[in-house]
Amino acid sequence: MFAREVLGPTVDVLADLAGTGRALEFAIGTGRVGLALAARGVPVTGIELSPHMIAELRAKTAVGGPAVEVVQGDMATTQVDGEFSLVYLVFNTITNLLEQDEQVECFVNAARHLAPGGAFLVETFVPDLQRLPPGDCARPFDVSPEHLGFDTYDLVACRLTSHHVRFLPGGTASRFLSHHRYAWPAELDLMARIAGLRLESRWSGWDRSEFTAGARSHVSTWRGTR
Question: Cα-flanking dihedrals φ and ψ of residue 7, to 5°?
């Protein structure tokens, strides 16, 4: 995810949307994207729930990295001072909010921070349900000698759990579960309308390629209507 061919197009899009204004990253983590964007000359502020990730981000800035302000808190409710020309949320992080109401609040919080004409951007996956055989609730996404990864779906609750089993030396293994609430693009558009935002663009990736029925992910931007 830090490779130039992955991070470069991401930062190109974000810098273009931010223009000469400020950017606010929800769930900034350890600064993979935010630090790269700040290095392009965009003033970046971040909101992050994990104190451990905040400590790692600050350690990076302490050794000569670009300055990034970070505030600890929940991206759905935490507010920071000022207005931003861009608020963004990358790499499926919107799905870490496990209730629809929380996801709506995230859109409302983004709109609350936007300057007039500002944009809210979300990168996330398209639910893989069309590839599930009838009656099945699990789909593998990685099978290798080192790792077994598969998703299980709760179609009633719109939830999925990503299962990661890593095979370690000596015949042992570790297991990690990641819980998500998925949402279709049309549902996200409705959340945006609740927050006073309207869809501006939707691409299948950071290269701004056309979003089609076969796309596995999307990068979407919404702007204010008032």
Answer: -75, -35
